[in-house]
Design a protein that fits this description.
The complex is a heterodimer of chains A (233) and B (297).
Chain A: H1 3-19, E1 21-22, H2 23-49, H3 73-81, H4 88-104, H5 106-109, H6 121-143, H7 159-167, E2 175-176, E3 179-180, H8 191-194, H9 197-206, H10 219-229
Helix pairs in contact in A: 3-4, 3-6, 7-10, 9-10
Chain B: H1 42-65, H2 67-76, E1 78-79, H3 89-108, H4 118-127, H5 132-159, H6 168-190, H7 195-209, H8 215-223, H9 230-262, H10 281-286
Helix pairs in contact in B: 3-5, 4-5, 5-6, 6-7, 6-9, 7-8
The chains are: A mainly alpha (233), B mainly alpha (297).
C-alpha cells in the first residue's frame, strides 16, 4: 500500500464516518439484539442437548473412543488425509503452524489497497477454498463413525481377539476390513504381512507416535488381540 | 451533606450567613419560638438530598476519573455509513465470552480439579445443584457458539478487507484471540474427566509431542509427568480458568481500544461518492444509486 493509497483511504473513511450514525443508539441496538440472540441460542442448546456425562475416565479401561470436540475435527481429519508415518508431524504441527503463521501475517503480505471481495480474486478464492476445505474435513470427522463392531469373518479361535480389538476402540483410528476409519493409524487389514506378532504386542503396549498406550490391557486380552491381529494376512 | 437541623442541638447549629435570614442579636433560633416560619420538613429535605445523591456520586467519581468525556466520545462516535448486521459478529463473540466467564465462575464454585473427585463433582453439578446442568450446558454449548462466532467474525473481516491499513495490528490481536479461544476449548475438554475427554486429551498431548523442536517439551509440560493424571488435570484447570482468560481479557481490551480509536470499517462497496446532483438523472430514476452505494465503478 503506497502512502497515497493510505491517504486516500483515510480521507474516504473520514467522509463515510461523517455520513454515518452515532454508535449509540443505532449500532448498540443491533449489537444488543444480536447479544440476545446469542444468549437465546446458548440457552436453547443447553435445554435441548444438556451436558450429559460420559462414563468416568478410567486409565485402565480399554473401551474408549478418542474423539475431539467437533470444532477440532478438521485438524483430526488432516491426520487421515496424510498417512505415511514420516509425514505425520507435517499434518499434526506443520500444516496448522503454517496456516496460523499465514493467518497472522495476512496484513503484511496482502498489500493490495483494494477491499471489495470481487476485486481481490486471489484472496477471495483462497478464503472460500479454506472454508470449503475446513467444512469438508469437519463433515468427514462428523460422519467418520467410531464403530465398535468388526464384520470380518474369522476363524473361531480368533473371535475373542476380534472382540477385544472392537471393544478397545482401535477402529477410531485404524481400518480393519470394511470397518473402522482409515487413519490416522495405518490400515490393519493385512497387518500380519508387514508386522510380526511381537512387534504388534510391543506397539499396543508402548503406543508409538500419537497412538495411546494400552499397557493396562490385561495379559490374556493382549494375547487374544495379538493372536487376532497376527492372523490378518 | 448537611445534617437536618432538627436533630442537631440548638447551640451546635450552623449560624446563618451574614445578611440573610437568621435571627436578631440575642434571639433564639426561629424554630424554638412558638410560631416557627414555614420551612420544608426534614423528611422533605432529606429526600431532596437523596434524589441528588446519585448525581453527586457520579460527579465525585468523574471529577477524579474523568471518564465521562471518554464515555461520551465512545458512545456517540459515528459509525460509518452502510454499517450492517455483519458488524455485530464481533460484539456477539464478546458476549459469548461473557456468558462463558459468568457460567464458568458458577461452575468453579462446585468443581473440584482432582482426578478422584472431578467426575463426582460434575455429577453433583448435574444432578444436585439448582440449575446445575443448565449452567453446565450453557458453558459447554457456549464454547461451540463462541468458536462459530469468532470464525464468522474473522470471515467478515477477511472478505471485507477490514484487516488492511490502518487496522493491521487489530487483525494480529484477533488471530491471537482466536488461538487462545481454541486453547480454551482444548483445556476445558479434559475437565469433566470422563472417558471421552480423558482419551481425547491424551491424543491431543501426543499430537503436540510430534511437533518439531519444542513439541516434546510442550507435551511434557502439558502432561506434567509421565502419564496423564492429577497434576495434568490441575494444570489444565489453572490454564483454563486463570492463565488464558486473563490473556483473553487483556487482549479484548486492546482489541476494543483499537476499534474505538480507529473506527469500524464501512462495507467495502460503500463509497463516499460524489454529490448526487452530479449523477445523471436517468440513473437516479432507475434507482441504481441505491442507498448511496458506489455510483461509479
Amino acid at each position: 500500500m503506497k502512502p497515497a493509497d493510505k491517504q486516500a483511504y483515510l480521507e474516504e473513511y473520514e467522509i463515510l464516518k461523517k455520513k454515518g450514525k452515532p454508535f449509540f443508539p443505532y449500532a448498540v441496538l443491533k449489537d444488543s439484539t444480536m447479544a440476545l440472540i446469542v444468549v437465546g441460542v446458548i440457552v436453547l442448546l443447553s435445554i435441548l442437548l444438556g451436558a450429559e456425562q460420559g462414563p468416568k475416565a478410567d486409565p485402565t479401561s480399554t473401551t474408549y473412543v478418542p474423539r475431539p470436540e467437533w470444532y477440532f475435527y478438521f485438524l483430526f481429519e488432516l491426520l487421515r488425509v496424510i498417512k505415511p508415518p514420516e509425514l505425520v508431524p507435517i499434518a499434526t504441527v506443520g500444516i496448522p503452524t503454517i496456516c496460523m503463521v499465514l493467518l497472522f501475517l495476512l496484513p503484511f503480505y496482502d498489500r493490495n489497497p483494494e477491499r471489495r471481495p470481487e476485486r481481490r480474486p486471489i484472496a477471495t478464492t483462497v478464503g472460500c477454498l479454506t472454508i470449503v476445505a475446513m467444512a469438508y474435513l469437519t463433515y468427514l470427522g462428523a460422519t467418520g463413525g467410531s464403530p465398535t463392531e468388526i464384520e470380518m469373518k474369522v476363524a473361531p479361535q480368533y473371535e475373542a481377539g476380534k472382540e477385544v480389538v472392537a471393544g478397545a476402540g482401535c477402529l477410531a483410528c485404524h481400518k480393519i476390513g470394511e470397518n473402522g476409519n482409515n487413519g490416522p493409524g495405518p490400515d490393519l487389514t493385512h497387518i500380519a504381512q508387514r508386522v510380526p506378532r511381537a512387534a504388534i504386542v510391543r506397539s499396543v503396549q508402548i503406543g508409538p507416535g500419537i497412538m495411546p498406550s494400552y499397557r493396562d490391557l490385561p495379559p490374556r486380552k493382549l494375547d487374544e488381540l495379538a493372536n487376532f491381529l497376527s492372523s490378518l494376512d | 451533606m448537611r445534617i437536618p437541623d432538627s436533630i442537631v442541638p440548638a447551640p451546635l447549629r450552623r449560624p446563618a450567613k451574614p445578611g440573610e435570614g437568621g435571627n436578631d442579636k440575642g434571639q433564639a433560633p426561629a424554630d424554638l419560638k412558638t410560631s416557627p416560619p414555614e420551612r420544608p420538613s426534614d423528611v422533605q429535605r432529606v429526600s431532596d438530598r437523596a434524589k441528588e445523591a446519585p448525581a453527586d456520586v457520579l460527579a465525585w467519581v468523574d471529577q477524579r476519573a474523568g471518564a465521562s468525556g471518554f464515555l461520551t466520545g465512545m458512545l456517540y462516535r459515528k459509525v460509518p455509513k452502510g454499517t450492517n448486521w455483519f458488524y455485530t459478529l464481533g460484539s456477539a463473540t464478546l458476549f459469548a465470552f461473557i456468558v462463558q466467564a459468568v457460567t464458568g465462575v458458577f461452575l468453579a464454585m462446585f468443581y473440584t480439579p482432582s482426578p478422584t473427585q472431578a467426575y463426582a463433582s460434575i455429577a453433583h453439578i448435574n444432578n444436585d445443584v439448582f440449575l446445575g446442568q443448565f449452567v453446565h450446558g450453557m458453558h459447554k454449548w457456549g464454547a461451540s457458539v463462541m468458536v462459530i462466532l469468532i470464525f464468522l467474525h474473522m470471515g467478515r473481516t477477511f472478505f471485507f478487507g477490514a484487516y488492511k491499513y490502518p487496522r493491521e495490528l487489530n487483525w494480529v490481536i484477533g488471530v491471537v484471540l482466536l488461538i487462545l479461544t481454541m486453547m480454551m476449548a482444548l483445556t476445558g475438554y479434559l475437565l469433566p474427566f470422563d472417558q471421552r475427554s480423558f482419551w481425547a486429551s491424551i491424543v491431543a498431548i501426543n499430537l503436540t509431542g510430534t511437533g518439531p523442536v519444542v513439541g516434546p517439551y510442550l507435551a511434557d509440560f502439558l502432561r506434567a509427568g509421565a502419564e496423564l493424571g492429577g497434576t495434568t488435570l490441575a494444570r489444565f484447570y489453572a490454564i483454563h480458568m486463570l492463565l488464558i482468560p486473563g490473556a483473553i481479557i487483556a487482549l479484548i481490551g486492546a482489541h476494543l481500544y483499537l476499534v474505538v480509536k480507529l473506527g469500524t470499517t464501512a462495507p467495502p462497496w460503500v463509497r463516499a461518492g460524489k454529490p448526487k446532483a452530479a449523477a445523471p438523472v436517468s440513473q437516479l430514476d432507475a434507482g441504481t444509486e441505491g442507498n448511496g452505494a458506489s455510483p461509479a465503478r
